[in-house]
Design goal:
The complex is a heterodimer of chains A (444) and B (268). Chain A is 70% helix and 1% strand. Chain A is mainly alpha-helical and 444 residues long. Chain A has a two-stranded antiparallel ribbon with strand order 1-2. Chain A is globular. With 268 residues, chain B is of the alpha/beta class. Chain B is globular, with a radius of gyration of 18 Å. The N and C termini of chain B lie far apart (52 Å). The chains are: A mainly alpha (444), B alpha/beta (268). At the A-B interface, helix 1, helix 13 and helix 14 of A face strand 8, helix 5 and helix 7 of B. The complex binds adenosine-5'-triphosphate and magnesium ion. The site of magnesium ion (MG) has 4 residues of chain B, from helix 2.
Chain lengths: 444, 268
Amino acid sequence: MAKVEDEVGRTALDDEVEPTAAAEIAAPPEILAESLGQYVRAWGRRVAGGESGALPVVFALVIIAVAFEIWTQGLFLSPQNLVNLFIESMVFMTLGMAEIFVLLLGEIDLSAGYILAVSAGVAGLLVQKPGPDWPWWLAIVTALVCSGVTGAVWGLLVSKLHLPSFVVTLAGLLIMWGVMLVMLGNAGEVSVASRILVNQHVLYQIVWGNIPPVAGWVGLAVLSLLFAGFTISRDFGRRRKGLVAPPPGLTILKIAFFVAAGIAVVAVCNVNRGSAVVVLAGVPWVVPIVLVVLLLWVVLLQRTKFGRYVYAIGGNPDAARRAGISLATVRTWAFALAGVTAGFSGILYLSWQGGTSTNVNGGQYVLYGVAAAVIGGTSLFGGRGKIAQAVLGGLVIGAIYNGLYLQGVQVQWQLIATGLVLVGAVLVDTLSRRGTLSGSATRI
Amino acid sequence: MSSAPGSESPTPGAPGSALVSPGTQPLLQLRGVDKHFGAVQALYHVDLDLPAAQVTALCGDNGAGKSVLTRCIAGIHQPDRGEILWSGKQVHLRGPRDAADLGIEVVYQDLALADNLDIVQNMFLGRERVHRGLLNEDSMERAAAETLRNLKVTTVRSIRQPVASLSGGQRQAVAVAKAVMWNSKLVLLDEPTAALGVVQTRMVLDLVRTLRDHGLGVMLVSHNLNDVFQVADRIAVLHLGRKVAEGPAADFDLQSVVEYMTTGSAHR
Ligand SMILES: Nc1ncnc2c1ncn2[C@@H]1O[C@H](COP(=O)(O)OP(=O)(O)OP(=O)(O)O)[C@@H](O)[C@H]1O
Ligand SMILES: [Mg+2]
């Protein structure tokens, strides 16, 4: 076990007060590095020390993609299938986002899968004709409100009565399962696949409607400019004001990565997946919709007091309490927001399936949601994680689900494969936490 | 923000209190403070003066009541009997907010920092600056950097590194900086050097001197008599909840303090 030595920028002035190698690993490299080269070296040390950030999940994605591409003889990475994969992953991503709200607090929400089911049921039933025949937007809002209130109830039980969230939301899982069965009644299913009823068709088009290819490119260009403008003005502005900022090379790299990913997605989606006669191409609407939700939640968690308090409570509840933060309020809101986000994934599910039925396996979905969050790099122990990590995590789950399905593999093997990936993710989380806590991150 | 504590208390820094020169009127005085928890009497009739621009060391063996006394001044416990005077006027501290509003800040024995947050985030925890609903990170970072510079805390690499990546002494420095950011007049430090090595202890003691030189009143709770004699201007000793000695540090030597701490009296 050799201590990591030969630190960047260590000067003669530093004495014993200098943080240890382990501490160095715990600090994000973009904070300490002055240049891209230093960044890469610091990052390499971190990976070697077990604090690997997004690396394992990107690595896992590449392995999965290559393996399935070979196994399915080129089917997996075909544009047609990649679009399917994006669409399927959206539900896992949004469920992952829902879980991150509570995982950051060190809590868990096991009911998210059946909140999804109930939300899909509520929205679906409200646009039936004959029936309520509500406008589509009112149906969506109602479903989201119901989901949020449900989450808030779990939150109140957890924060006011100090019940463990595991038990509260396990009970919630059963309750929402029952509610869904009652709601869907004897028919046991509800459809929104009608092409004549406008309100059903709008819901259906969320996932199955496509942005015209040209509009897709224009949208990407606008988005890229906005992203580049914002990132540059922030990073370089901070640098100019003498505040801590990432090295300029890293800022450029970030923008390049964003643009490249955007081009890849739009290019893949704009390939004709229909026939020569019936052209089917374009980015599904669900992609920008999920992006907007992601952006909202990123701002909420990274740029507001509420978000700061969520992290503080997850990191050290006593410190938060002494700082005058109302733990109960923050916790309740976090559960409510987790509920809303799970409800949102229910809307996506309804659209994706063109309806919903009593067969929705909410127990399995919630585990996929937790898996997406943890695989993405969110800690089960609270305080560490970012909402955007659900995107990568959701893609991993979506890829396994999609690839095995493509290969006609039975559902039991899908379960086993996903379970193994989850165990791997938890292992990484636990090991890196142990390394940080014991203060003895070492090279093996 | 929150309402003013004890209605009759003067605003800190108001002309009335500024006229009183330090030395004649202590910043904070305890008069006959009692505190019990069920059958346990933690404090018996404690009198204590904490003057501005001086370091008062509070010594005592384990369980002597040092932390309880600290928490009474911090507004976390309310004394059963006795009074607390701030610049000569009686105040009622009903919670930590009341104490903070007067300018009393506490660095707790267990620090109360969130490991996953960075230095700036910790220093502003609960008092974030916001601009149109969003956190004003630039302004907070500048203020935090300035405070650390004033305290001559220069060993941290980056003010944006998570507290988990700091050494014990650096964490202590952040906790102290957090406490003095808010125009505080009196800083209570509960065992600030308990877990530290030689170099880091020296760094924290330097910090304590810097605070005093800036005119703040400091109460330093400590077991370590070496530290006490290095920085204290005044020494007070608690023994089983009673204050058994108080006076200028020059009136004590190592042996007499040890005797007070262990037996409650010194024969000289
Ligand atoms: N919240 C509480 N409830 C009941 N008893 C308490 C409480 N806080 C302190 N005590 C008791 O009051 C006495 C004084 O405790 P205190 O924590 O002030 O000791 P201390 O001088 O700080 O000791 P140490 O050096 O170990 O920190 C102890 O007997 C302790 O058990
Ligand atoms: Mg104590």
